[in-house]
Write a structure and sequence with these properties.
Layout: H1 7-13, H2 15-26, H3 37-50, H4 57-66, H5 71-81, H6 87-94
Helix pairs in contact: 1-2, 3-4, 3-5, 5-6
Pfam family, one: CMD
Protein name: Carboxymuconolactone decarboxylase
GO molecular function, one term: peroxiredoxin activity
């Protein structure tokens, strides 16, 4: 049975891969100064979408928002990707966007 793994369940299933992910990927690659975290998020979402790795899209969308990517920019990213990664990939990615929130009044 397929189950998406998050940071905690990955650690239970494969402690070494979880360690490498934390130390190398998020502790080094994501911390490099040439690309901003915002740019890295956009690149990551584009790759996940193009490769059909939708199990990780939800987490990376939330992470992108933390890195300053707006919902409108995410929508535009996936619309743009429809022409380069394929329509089904873009529509699948769009399904992971959270519903728009009503502005506070």
């Amino acid at each position: 049975m397929h189950r998406p793994l998050d940071r905690h369940t990955l650690e239970q299933v494969s402690p070494k891969l979880a360690e490498i992910t934390q130390n190398l990927l998020f502790g080094d690659i994501w911390q490099r100064e040439t690309l901003t975290p915002r740019e890295s998020s956009l690149i990551t979402l584009a790759c996940l979408t193009a490769l059909g790795r939708d199990a990780q899209l939800g987490w990376h969308i939330r992470f992108a928002e933390e890195n300053g990517v707006s919902r409108a920019e995410l929508s535009e990213l996936f619309t743009h990707l429809a022409f380069y990664a394929g329509w089904p990939a873009a529509v699948c990615a769009l399904s992971y966007l959270p519903e728009e929130q009503e502005p506070c009044r």
